[in-house]
Amino acid sequence: MKYATMTAAACLFLSATSGLPDTLIKFKTNAPGSPDSMSIKGSKVLISAPEGKGRFIMDTAAGKITMINDQEKKYFELDNKTVEQTSSMMKMMQNAMLAQLKNLPPEQRKAIESRLGLQQKTPPAPKVEIKPTSAVIKVNGIPCTMTNIFTDGKKTAEACVATTKAAGISEADFATMQKMFRMSRELAEKAASMSGAAAGKFARSLAPDLDGFPMEVRDLRNGNNVIVSKIEKTYLSDTSFKPGRGYQKFNPIQEMQKLMQRPN
């Protein structure tokens, strides 16, 4: 009898802890074509494009990003290794293009190089400062602190930051979300360091580490505004976090290799 009672209690405990609700965040934005929702399930984050056009899935435990085109039923995956390979091949393609431009007149060559960004150097990492103010407002009924974000001394964004408790988001889901932003920055910075692009600088200044959950973010550089309209606890299907049956895996590295092998 005692064994049966302990077994029943253990089953109840496991069912309660393993079936914790997932998080669905919906938001509104003035940027056309931007995602309108974010779903968090365990270590995975799903960001959906409007009208079912595609999905962006980040597995923070595996360090992998999956980009899914639901309209064409294709997908590809990115991790540190593929970013390194892709960036390396892009550099090879750039060097090949530079070699072809050597015979052009200097002014024409420089104009083409500038237009294509072939001689861009990797910009230094920006200095990002986060300065909370004393102003507290409510966004869709949730209190949040107005926070200013500075990049290299210039105010580039404003955010209204709520505590996870006020927003109703578990610490585990918030930790997953932070890992997602961190991974996105790291991958962008790695690609930038290898290709000389400014993606890493932009990624770091756009998604800084905020001490809480952003209910609203205003990007002062382009006027884009994102407002969280709803946060709900729900149960999310595993199928939403992976490509559909019959979807074709697209290998960007192989496609780049084909381009490099084409005759001039």
Brief characterization of the structure:
With 264 residues, the chain is α+β, with helices and mostly antiparallel strands. It contains 7 helices and 12 strands. Helix content is 37%, strand content 32%.
Looking at this protein, list some descriptive labels.
single chain; 264 residues; outer membrane lipoprotein receptor (LolB), chain A; twelve-stranded mixed sheet; 7 helices; 32% strand; disordered N terminus
Describe what you observe in this structure.
The protein is an alpha+beta fold and 264 residues long. The protein has a single domain, classed as Clam (outer membrane lipoprotein receptor (LolB), chain A), CATH 2.50.20.10. The chain is built from seven helices and twelve strands. A twelve-stranded mixed β-sheet has the order 7-8-9-10-11-1-2-3-4-5-6-12. Helix 2 runs parallel beside helix 5 and helix 2 runs parallel beside helix 7 (252-261). The longest helix is centred in the C-terminal third of the chain and has 25 residues, at 171-195. The relative contact order is 0.18.
